[in-house]
Amino acid sequence: QVQLVESGGGLVQAGGSLRLSCSASGGLFSFNAMRWYRQAPGKQREFVASISSSGSTNYADSVKGRFTISRDNAKNTLYLQMTSLKPEDTAVYFCKQLQYWGQGTQVTVSS
Q1: Which of 96, 99, 110, 98 has the alpha carbon at shortest distance from 20?
Q2: Is the N end or the C end of the chain the one with fewer CB atoms within 10 Å?
C-alpha cells in the first residue's frame, strides 16, 4: 500500500516562493513516475507537473518557467519548487503515484 504525505504549503505573498514535498512509502518510488496536481475552490483538480523515473519532466502551461519538479530517490521524496507565485496558484496541492493520492497541502497566495 503506497502512502503519500505532502508538506510545505502555507500562506505567501504574490511573487514569493514555496517548496512542497511529498514523502512516499510502501511502494517502489524510484521506479514510478510522480505527479503534482492542484485543486482550487470550486474547480476541478488539474495537472501541474510530472517527473518520470528517469527524471524527464513535464509542466502545465500555467506553471511552466515558474515551477520545478524534482525527486530524490534516496529519500523517496518528490518536490515542487514554486517561484513567482500568483494568486491564481492558490489551491490544495496533491502528489500522485500510480493510482494513489496524498491528502494534499494548502497553498494560499495573497495579492
Answers
A1: 96
A2: N
58 torsion bin: left (phi>0), alpha (psi -120 to 50), beta (else): beta
For 14, the 3-state DSSP assignment is coil
Closest by CA position to 36, among listed 46, 25, 26, 24: 46
Contact between residue 50 and residue 33 where contact means Cβ atoms under 8 Å apart: yes
Cβ–Cβ under 8 Å, residues 100 and 109: no
Tell me which residue has cell 505567501: 12
For residue 4, pLDDT beyond 90: yes
